[in-house]
């Protein structure tokens, strides 16, 4: 290093360096500033991503939580014998002949009585008054009477569902100004609600029906629930699990343990890696053309949805299964072969069981991905109809038209009604809860059984 | 005999073969296993596979092919009817099902069923819970009778063939059992065959996708000129006919939204990946990485709703009429910007995790070399690591672009429905995927060009994403080889 000139001159333009190396000259300062700036960019990028996540989760929780509560109005309804069972037969068959139209006047009368009792003055006519209740209230009454025919003629206290606007008012979604253009409800209704609320007969409480109930028509968001579509998703996941796991594992075993290196194997590999990146909507087109148009399987059925999602998740499962097979050290195979096992025995008896925790983790994550997938379901007809009934039996659960959780959420989002938007957000909370559960199971499985070799 | 019972009988035969073959193998060597070629269970499995395998395969093939054969022989009978042939065929099957049900419920004897006449048949069958849409015409009745005959004969033949096959091959397998018989080899060969078949499902899926796209696309181009589709600048489908179905506005919307998504995702994702792999403390990394992965695990329907109900109104408050900026750029909540922004958020973890892998693949010696020469960390990143990782990062960006182009739910909910060729990013536009959904989800008639165009759109989408993927994977793979 003797050829460095005296004073440790820098070969650059800013001339010979003087003084200590630790003293910052302008150039070093600039470089350090650039360093800090760059680091700040990184922190900013991460913060932005985190902020997006927070905003997303916050808006889900804020908009979705109200869906889990519902407003009920407590009313004493006189189940007039004159109306329901004029001949006093007490025969359930006779009572069953009365449709919900017979019950509507009873509700109106009960509401008028209720207001008179509390001394609430109003100009709202009785038939408009009933609009503070859900249009399903009459059916609720009728079902109760059919289940207990002996109550006819008595006065029974009911908790009737409030209409979605009243519910929205209680949740702060509907304001008086917004009602100005509403044909169903006006400010006078809200006065009544306020008065009843002060007396404690309007109550907002946890609504189990949102999770277990079935979908309702456009005009009754207050009755709509997620239950049938949860079941639809469950049947689809069952199909995916029963098909994708065995096929995926078998394919992975072949590719990882047995496949010779040739063109055919290459072809399979290329296919798998490309299928993993094909847009999900294309799988929907495949399902429509192959399963519904060609094979005439029933449209909207969880079976078809499950088949489509199976094809879609297979690449994911194969990729993760191969990784866990690869993680089993060759010494295990060698030891098995060394004591006389055949290659198949070594794989099936030793490699596969050791790789199983990893395979299951990958499968659960694949299922979670399939559970949230919506686009292919749109094409095989799982939206656009109202999943208002539970399937009758286990087998019809696969073949009867049903919805699925994400499809139901999309359906609600499409109905362009704030009350249904609230349901959609609530549905997302349920969906994310299921996904979280599956991910936690996967993580625990990995923690519990993972072996380091 | 119903399929369920056939399967059950076949499985029972297989189980019996297992037990018998195992016992026969053991008794052939007086219970001394050492004289057998394979463990006794392999003899059992070998026989059971012989009994069940071919029988079940034949059954599956038969079930798949019988409807085609029946259709072919019944359809000519109903062609005279001046209605939609598919509708008549469904009448025929429903009528045949109704007659069968009436027999099963004891309302008709098999004899009577053969001599049925068309008059009043609808009322008779409705007593047994079969509601027919219209009165039965003699032609339909004849077709239904033919249908029943063929179905019945098919079912009988099917049962005999399947069970006969199971018993016959099971007996053959039993006869083969001897101490020197290589049972394990034969079982393992069958298993290997099953493994190969499973691996071929991937090829089958690709073939299925390509076939279903190609056939319907060809059908579409038969009804609508390909040049108008590929170069048309208006998209105005009308199910009454006379639609113009040009793909250009859709492609433009797709590319515009993807571009905005990439402008959001690539800088944020890349910088986040660089920070996490080069700067972040271990604990920060342990927290931040899973958080980013949460973003990746959220289903797209959630992002779609987020775009529609949160981001759209938010942008309206800023860029819409009466908004914070006082400009009137935005007409509604759904726009290219809404969808692009949300899609960008969705792609951040995708870009960052891919870039993370690629940055980590750059050898440590290159970093050490640069730092040893006196470069700062950011200079090392900018002048050494990024150039070295560039091909990989380009690959990652291409993969992200292919994701963005194929994304459906966000654009269906967030981008709007109007097809436009416009430069304003606050205008509603639509994409290829959104139109596939809207053209195929109505009660559309699948033979009209308005529905078939969805397959042509799907084909376009498939080809574009395939090219992007293959190209990106090729780049990534080449780059990886460089340092291995």
UniProtKB/TrEMBL annotation, chain A:
Q: Which GO terms describe its molecular function?
A: phosphate transmembrane transporter activity
The record's InterPro entries line, in alphabetical order, gives: DUF3333, MetI-like, MetI-like_sf, Phosphate_PstA
Q: Identify the Pfam families for this entry.
A: BPD_transp_1, DUF3333
Record-level GO BP terms: phosphate ion transmembrane transport
- List every stretch annotated Disordered: 1-25
Question: Residue limits of the ABC transmembrane type-1 domain?
Answer: 230-442
The family database entries (CDD domains) matched by this protein are listed as:
TM_PBP2
Gene Ontology cellular-component terms listed: plasma membrane
Coiled-coil segments: none
Q: Which residues cross the membrane?
A: 38-61, 234-255, 275-295, 301-319, 351-372, 424-445
Q: What is this protein called?
A: Phosphate transport system permease protein PstA
Task: Give the source species.
Answer: Pseudoroseicyclus aestuarii
UniProtKB/TrEMBL annotation, chain B:
Does Kinase appear among the keywords? no
Gene3D superfamilies per UniProt: MetI-like
Subcellular locations according to the entry: Cell inner membrane; Cell membrane
In what way does this protein cross or attach to the membrane? Multi-pass membrane protein
Keyword list (alphabetical) reads: Cell inner membrane, Cell membrane, Membrane, Phosphate transport, Transmembrane, Transmembrane helix, Transport
Superkingdom classification of source: Bacteria
Q: Residue limits of the ABC transmembrane type-1 domain?
A: 251-472
Q: Which CDD domains match?
A: TM_PBP2
> Pfam families attached here?
BPD_transp_1, DUF3708
GO CC term (a single one): plasma membrane
Report any one BP term from Gene Ontology: phosphate ion transport
Gene Ontology MF term list: phosphate transmembrane transporter activity
Q: Which residues are listed as membrane-spanning?
A: 43-65, 155-178, 190-214, 221-238, 250-274, 294-316, 336-363, 384-405, 451-476
Tell me the protein family, please: Belongs to the binding-protein-dependent transport system permease family. CysTW subfamily.
Protein function? Part of the binding-protein-dependent transport system for phosphate; probably responsible for the translocation of the substrate across the membrane.
Q: What is this protein called?
A: Phosphate transport system permease protein
- Which species is this UniProt entry from? Pseudoroseicyclus aestuarii
């Amino acid at each position: 290093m003797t050829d460095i000139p005296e004073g440790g001159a820098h070969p650059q333009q800013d001339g010979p360096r003087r003084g200590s190396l630790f003293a910052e000259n302008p150039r070093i300062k600039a470089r350090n500033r650039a360093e800090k700036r760059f680091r700040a960019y990184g922190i900013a990028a991460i913060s932005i991503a985190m902020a997006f996540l927070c905003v997303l989760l916050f808006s889900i929780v804020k908009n979705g939580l109200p869906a889990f509560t519902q407003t009920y109005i407590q009313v004493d309804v006189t189940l007039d014998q004159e109306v329901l069972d004029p001949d006093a037969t007490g025969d359930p068959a006779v009572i069953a002949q009365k449709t919900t139209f017979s019950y509507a006047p009873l509700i109106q009368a009960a509401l008028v009585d209720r207001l008179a009792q509390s001394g609430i003055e109003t100009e709202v006519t009785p038939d408009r008054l009933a609009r503070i209740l859900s249009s399903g209230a009459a059916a609720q009454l009728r079902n109760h009477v059919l289940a207990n025919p002996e109550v006819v003629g008595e006065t029974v206290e009911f908790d009737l569902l409030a209409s979605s606007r009243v519910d929205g008012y209680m949740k702060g979604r509907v304001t008086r100004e917004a009602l100005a253009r509403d044909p169903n409800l006006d400010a006078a209704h809200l006065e009544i609600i306020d008065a009843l609320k002060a007396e404690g007969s309007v109550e907002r409480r946890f609504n189990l029906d949102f999770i277990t109930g079935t979908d309702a028509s456009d005009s009754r968001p207050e009755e709509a629930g997620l239950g049938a579509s949860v079941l639809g998703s469950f049947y689809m996941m069952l199909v995916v699990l029963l098909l994708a796991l065995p096929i995926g594992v078998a394919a992975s075993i072949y590719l990882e343990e047995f496949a010779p290196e040739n063109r055919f194997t290459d072809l399979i590999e290329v296919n798998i890696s490309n299928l993993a990146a094909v847009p999900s909507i294309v799988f929907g087109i495949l399902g429509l053309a192959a399963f519904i148009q060609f094979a005439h399987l029933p449209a909207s059925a969880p079976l078809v949805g499950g088949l489509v999602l199976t094809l879609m998740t297979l690449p994911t499962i194969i990729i993760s299964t191969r990784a866990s097979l690869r993680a089993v050290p060759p010494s295990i195979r060698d030891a098995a072969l060394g004591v006389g096992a055949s290659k198949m025995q070594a794989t099936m008896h030793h490699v596969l069981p050791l790789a199983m925790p990893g395979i299951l983790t990958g499968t659960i994550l694949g299922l979670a991905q399939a559970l949230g997938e919506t686009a292919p379901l749109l094409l095989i007809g799982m939206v656009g109809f109202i999943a208002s009934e539970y399937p009758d039996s286990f087998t019809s659960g696969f073949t009867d038209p049903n919805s699925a959780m994400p499809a139901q959420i999309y359906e609600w989002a499409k109905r362009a009604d704030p009350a249904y938007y609230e349901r959609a957000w609530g549905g997302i909370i349920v969906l994310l809860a299921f996904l979280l559960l599956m991910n936690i199971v996967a993580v625990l499985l990995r923690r519990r059984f993972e072996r380091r070799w | 005999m119903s399929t369920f019972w056939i399967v059950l009988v076949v499985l029972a035969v297989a189980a019996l073969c297992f037990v018998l073959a195992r016992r026969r193998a053991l008794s052939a060597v007086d219970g001394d296993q050492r004289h057998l070629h394979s463990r006794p269970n392999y003899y059992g499995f070998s026989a059971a596979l012989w009994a069940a395998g071919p029988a079940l395969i034949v059954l599956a093939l038969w079930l798949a092919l019988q409807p085609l054969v029946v259709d072919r022989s019944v359809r000519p009978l109903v062609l005279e009817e001046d209605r939609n042939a598919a509708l008549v065929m469904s009448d025929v099957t429903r009528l045949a099902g109704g007659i069968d049900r009436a027999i099963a419920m004891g309302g008709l004897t098999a004899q009577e069923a053969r001599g049925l006449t068309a008059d009043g048949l609808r009322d008779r069958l409705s007593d047994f819970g079969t509601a027919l849409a219209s009165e039965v015409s003699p032609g339909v009745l004849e077709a239904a009778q033919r249908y029943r005959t063929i179905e019945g004969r098919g079912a009988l033949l099917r049962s005999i063939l399947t069970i006969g096959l199971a018993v016959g091959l099971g007996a053959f397998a039993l006869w083969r059992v001897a101490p020197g018989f290589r049972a394990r080899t034969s079982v393992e060969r069958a298993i290997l065959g099953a493994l190969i078949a499973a691996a071929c499902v991937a090829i089958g899926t690709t073939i299925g996708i390509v076939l279903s796209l190609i056939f319907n696309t060809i059908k579409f181009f038969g009804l609508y000129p390909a040049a108008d589709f590929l170069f048309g600048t208006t998209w105005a489908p009308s199910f009454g006919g006379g639609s113009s179905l040009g793909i250009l506005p859709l492609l433009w919307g797709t590319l515009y939204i993807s571009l905005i998504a990439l402008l959001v995702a690539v800088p944020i994702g890349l910088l986040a990946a660089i920070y996490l792999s080069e700067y972040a403390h271990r604990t920060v990394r342990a927290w931040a990485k899973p958080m980013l992965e949460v973003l990746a695990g959220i289903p797209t329907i959630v992002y779609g709703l987020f775009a529609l109900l949160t981001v759209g109104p938010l942008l309206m408050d800023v860029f819409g009429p009466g908004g914070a900026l006082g400009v009137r750029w935005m007409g509604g909540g759904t726009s290219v910007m809404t969808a692009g922004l949300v899609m960008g958020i969705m792609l951040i973890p995708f870009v960052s995790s891919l870039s993370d892998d690629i940055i980590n693949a750059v050898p440590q010696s290159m970093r050490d070399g640069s730092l040893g020469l006196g470069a700062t960390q950011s200079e090392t990143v900018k002048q050494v690591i990024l150039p070295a990782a560039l091909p990989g990062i380009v690959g990652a960006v291409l993969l992200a672009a292919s994701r963005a182009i194929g994304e459906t739910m966000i654009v269906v909910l967030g981008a709007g429905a109007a097809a436009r060729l416009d430069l304003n990013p606050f205008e509603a536009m639509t994409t290829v995927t959104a139109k596939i959904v809207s053209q195929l989800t109505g009660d559309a008639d699948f033979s009209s060009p308005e529905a078939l165009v969805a397959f042509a759109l799907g084909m376009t989408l498939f080809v574009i994403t395939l090219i992007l993927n293959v190209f990106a994977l090729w780049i990534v793979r080449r780059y990886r080889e460089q340092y291995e």
